[in-house]
Write a structure and sequence with these properties.
heterodimer, A: about 700 residues, alpha+beta, 26 helices, 16 strands, B: about 280 residues, nine-stranded mixed sheet, 8 helices, 9 strands, about 20% strand, globular
């Protein structure tokens, strides 16, 4: 068995940066390579492969690829494959025909009649790849694809213009659409566009290198990043990835622009430069954007001076545009624009943005107390509600949608509107993406919270709940925002009350109870994920605290974190014991008609347990109300543990006498409920037996 | 190279490629794609090669002659080649070289930009071509026209003439472009730009425009009933341009936009259906 290097190059017209970026994700790379050489005997732990992508090439390099592998096919069992005389049957012959094998390929004739016959076939790696290349090309259909040959031709993100396939120094003539692979590649489109004959994989990479083609995505990215770092760039990793996907040979130009444009908000400069020319703004000492940029060109072109001049001219025109938008936008006040929001639909079933604003104002008033807002807070939030969506109608936000909120802030400040309100306008969109900062001001946080509650619950009412992968309105992300804002600001809100109020204000008709259950379940899922991923709480603890409810997310969190801190304490274990024992016996009892009758207590143990229980009731209620869960658990565990054990040792609960029995169960259920209904169902905590 | 010579050079190059050198359409269009020689000829399976200059009107892009790169009326050079040849990208680059652009001395890029026209129900995949970060051409392989999936794929190349000319003349302002040795772009168009911008943004008559939209829409529908495709199409072009004027004037709310675009699109699709029926 000989091993040789294999290389496949699919040469295309310029691929979208998103396709080039496949090379960034190791798992995507693995999947892609496995599509080509598959779940066969070729793939092994030891196999070394690389995927290189530039805008014009997708290259797979496999080192020491075995020239064939043994494919095992499993056939019928021995007793069906051979007759009584030991001759092959029609079944065996059919199997051999199907797998294109001959008798010689049969590995061995098994002893056992029920053991299956296997054949081992030598499959050449070249044939396998030639067969699977179509599958490989098809796997790109997860991207937007096009046809260019004919309607029955292959689909790909961009036209494929050549294919190279080499196994050692042998060209594999595999077919991709109307093209046949060969040993020919092409250099850089502008500098060396002619065909280049290649001897073997090593020669292939050597010739690309000679042409200054940095085929390795990671390396190309690093080269660009290093140059940017040297120049104190405004960090934008997304732009870095995109730009890496736009060049084969990175080269650099440093340029500048008129200082006048620095009077535009930084965010505008950054947005314009990254969206239009994909150039990187530089920062000064205080991390503010300065009037300089770095452009990454494709190829180290000698005409640098002229190119720099051209880049600068284009930049000037684009910034002039931005300045035009800015000045035009300032001609109308935010309040004036807000009036036009009645014509801007939030969603066709949910009314306009003007409607949304009215709902947000109403929510502010309805939840003023629950949110602990002063009159001044309330006024400011309402004012912010009225202005926070106005910038959606400005030219700047039309041109750069990512600047929503940000422009609102700047335009508000330009009008002389209160700084806090201006900041809230910007902040209410945060967190905008995973790991984004949360709003910092109280006003901003409340507005962000109410806006999200409104959006999520309204979309639930219109039937847009996320299903599987579908979450068009980003309700999951918004709910995570809700949880994070609540926890950061220690906000005590009832989810149930919030649902009821938004549901009432939202347009349309729907089954309120059903949707409320779905909504609570939905929030619960996000809550569990947050508690696990962000706080690393264990699943059983989360489960136990969830059992006692999560209507008030902040208090839920407090219970969870406090119990997490004390879960090694002796009194915690005591409390857990009490809960567990009282749980088990009262499991199937749902309610009692009779009240507890102390006169029915007979034995000392039940009387004493009752006394202990009574003695802590008020204190427990107080502790719970004050969120003092450590004290509550200590009191509960210490007071009731020993007495509970004595009770169970001496008292028979399930006696014949119904009155006695119910009375005992009632006591145990009440004791259980005192903890479980308010704090956590500790019986769900898994105890490790060491 | 003078502006008028740039056009002549492009005609010369594409004539050699076997293109019919056509004339611009005489009705307001937002892009050369709307020209019947692009639009209708993209449908169906027949081969077709055409090239022509087309003035295009985009009312919202008016800048009162103040911006060096943006205007409400400008010239496109349009090429449609169907079916698109294997080496079309190379041919395109050769066209740039033919104009005197030394491609080895510049940063030329094909940057993903999938063009789409909601009103025409047209979409394709392709790029904006950058010349030292200046977008000079929209390069598209159409996949759909009038809502129909195309079976023979055309390549559309739309050059931005002013930008290329600015580049060749090494000027930073469109109005400084020399049209010929005596006249420059400002002499011909500066005033038009100013007046056009003022009209589009401030002085047009919204009521009249709304009425005209309805009139042309009704006419288009009536003419489709009469099986007169081109007259119906021309009335649709009118509605499209009037919509652009209304949009620039700021009288169309965000919601209404979608509705208007839908109305124009309906007319365009109907024209396509009738055309396809006739082709059979």
């Amino acid at each position: 068995m000989k091993n040789k290097d294999f290389v496949l190059e699919i040469g295309t017209e310029e691929l979208p940066p998103s396709v080039v970026n496949i090379a960034k994700e190791p798992s995507d790379v693995k999947t892609l390579v496995e599509t080509l050489i598959g779940d066969t005997g070729l793939v092994s732990e030891k196999l070394k492969y690389s995927l290189y992508i530039t805008p014009r090439r997708i290259i797979i390099h496999i080192k020491d690829l075995p020239d064939f592998y043994n494919k095992i096919e499993v056939g019928p069992p021995k007793r069906i494959a051979y007759d009584k005389e030991g001759n092959p049957t029609r079944a065996l012959e059919g199997f051999l025909k199907k797998t294109e094998a001959i008798k010689k390929d049969i590995t061995k004739i098994p002893e056992n009649d029920d053991e299956k016959i296997t054949v081992s076939k030598k499959i050449s790696a070249k044939n396998l790849i030639a067969e699977r290349i179509t599958r490989f090309v098809k796997s790109f259909e997860s991207f937007k694809t096009m046809i260019w040959e004919s309607e029955r031709g292959i689909k790909f993100p961009r036209p494929i213009r050549w294919v190279l396939a080499l196994y050692g120094d042998e060209a594999i003539p595999l077919r991709v659409g109307l093209l046949t692979a060969s040993n020919i590649t092409y250099g850089h489109r502008l500098f060396s566009p002619d065909a280049i004959k290649v001897k073997n994989p090593q020669d292939f990479f050597k010739k690309l290198k000679k042409d200054n083609i940095v085929y390795d995505f990671g390396r190309r990215r690093k080269i660009i990043e290093n140059q940017l770092k040297k120049n104190h760039w405004h960090i934008n990793l997304q732009l870095l990835d995109e730009v890496t996907g736009l060049v084969e040979c990175p080269a650099f130009i440093k340029g500048g622009y008129n200082k006048e444009y620095l009077k535009l908000p930084q965010e505008v400069l950054i947005a314009s430069m990254s969206k239009n020319q994909r150039v990187f703004p530089l920062e000064g000492k205080n991390n503010n954007v300065i009037n300089k940029f770095i452009a990454v060109t494709d190829g180290n072109i000698k005409n640098i001076k002229r190119i720099k001049q051209n880049y600068e001219q284009v930049l000037d025109a684009k910034l002039k545009d931005a300045l035009f938008f800015y000045n035009e936008d300032l001609k109308k006040s935010l309040a004036e624009r807000t009036k036009q929001l009645k014509d801007m639909i939030f969603h066709k079933k949910l009314g306009s943005y003007a409607d949304k604003i009215e709902r947000l104002k109403q929510l502010t008033i309805s939840f003023k107390e629950a949110l602990k807002l002063t009159n001044s807070d309330c006024d400011k939030i309402i004012r912010a509600c009225e202005l926070c969506k106005a910038d959606l109608l400005t030219q700047m936000v039309s041109e750069f949608p990512s600047l929503q909120g940000i422009m609102g802030k700047y335009y508000a400040l330009a009008e002389g509107i209160d700084k806090e309100i201006a900041q809230a306008i910007e902040e209410h969109y945060k967190p905008r993406f995973f790991n984004d900062k949360l709003p910092e001001t109280k006003i901003g946080s409340i507005l962000a919270l109410l806006d999200r509650f409104d959006s999520v619950i309204c979309h639930f009412k219109t039937g847009h709940q996320p299903k599987g992968n579908w979450d068009l309105y980003a309700l999951r992300r918004q709910s995570i925002g809700i949880i994070n804002i609540i926890l950061k600001n220690k906000i005590g809100l009832s989810l149930s009350d919030m649902f009821d109020e938004v549901f009432r204000l939202a347009p349309g008709d729907a089954d309120e109870k059903k949707l409320k259950d779905e909504f609570m379940e939905f929030i619960k899922e996000r809550l569990i994920a947050a508690m696990k991923l962000d706080y690393k709480f264990k699943h059983d603890l989360i489960d136990s605290v969830l059992s006692s409810g999560f209507d008030n997310i902040y208090r839920f969190y407090l219970r969870l974190s406090i119990l997490n801190n004390i879960n090694d304490e002796f009194y915690f274990k005591q409390a857990r014991c009490v809960v567990e024992r009282t749980n088990n016996i009262t499991k199937n009892i749902s309610h009692f008609i009779d009240k507890m009758d102390t006169a029915l207590f007979q034995l000392e143990e039940e009387k004493q347990l009752y006394e202990k229980y009574k003695s802590i009731q008020d204190k427990m209620k107080a502790y719970i109300q004050q969120d003092k869960y450590q004290d509550a658990t200590k009191l509960y565990g210490n007071t009731l543990s020993d007495m509970t054990n004595s009770f169970f040792n001496k008292v028979m609960v399930n006696v014949e006498d119904k009155k006695l029995r119910n009375n005992r169960l009632k006591l145990l259920k009440e004791m259980n409920g005192l903890y479980v209904e308010n704090i956590a169902d500790l019986s769900k905590i898994v105890v490790s037996h060491k | 190279m003078y502006f008028q010579d740039l056009i002549a050079k492009l005609d010369e190059f594409w004539k050699k490629q076997g293109c019919v050198i056509a004339q611009p359409y005489d009705i307001e269009v937002g892009a050369a794609t709307f020209h019947p020689m692009t639009f209708f000829k993209s449908l169906g399976n027949k081969s077709w090669r055409v090239a022509f200059t087309q003035a295009s009107r985009r009312p919202t892009d008016g800048r009162y002659a103040d911006n060096p790169l943006r205007m409400q009326r400008y010239y496109q050079y349009q090429v449609l080649i169907k079916p698109s040849p294997e080496n079309i990208q190379d041919i395109y680059l050769k066209s740039l070289q033919f104009l005197g652009i030394k491609t080895k001395n510049h940063d030329i890029r094909f940057v993903e930009d999938d063009w789409e026209s909601p009103t025409l129900g047209a979409s394709g995949l392709g790029w904006e071509v950058w010349l030292d970060s200046l977008e000079i051409t929209q390069y598209t392989y159409f996949q759909q026209m009038g809502g129909f999936q195309l079976k023979v794929i055309p390549c559309e190349l739309t050059y931005g003439l002013e930008r290329i000319c600015m580049f060749l003349q090494n000027t930073d302002d469109v109005f400084k472009i020399k049209w010929n040795k005596d006249i420059n772009y400002a002499d011909i168009h500066r005033n038009d730009e100013k007046e056009g911008s003022e009209y589009n943004f401030q002085k047009s008559n919204p009521d009249a425009l709304l009425k005209l939209f309805d009139i042309h829409e009704t006419e288009s529908k009536r003419l489709l009933g009469e099986k007169l495709i081109l007259p119906a199409y021309e009335n649709m072009l009118k509605t499209s341009h009037i919509f652009n004027l209304l949009d620039a004037r700021g009288v169309i709310s965000v919601n209404e936009r979608a509705a208007y675009i839908g109305r124009v699109r309906k007319l365009a699709t109907a024209c396509v259906e009738l055309y396809m029926k006739n082709e059979k």
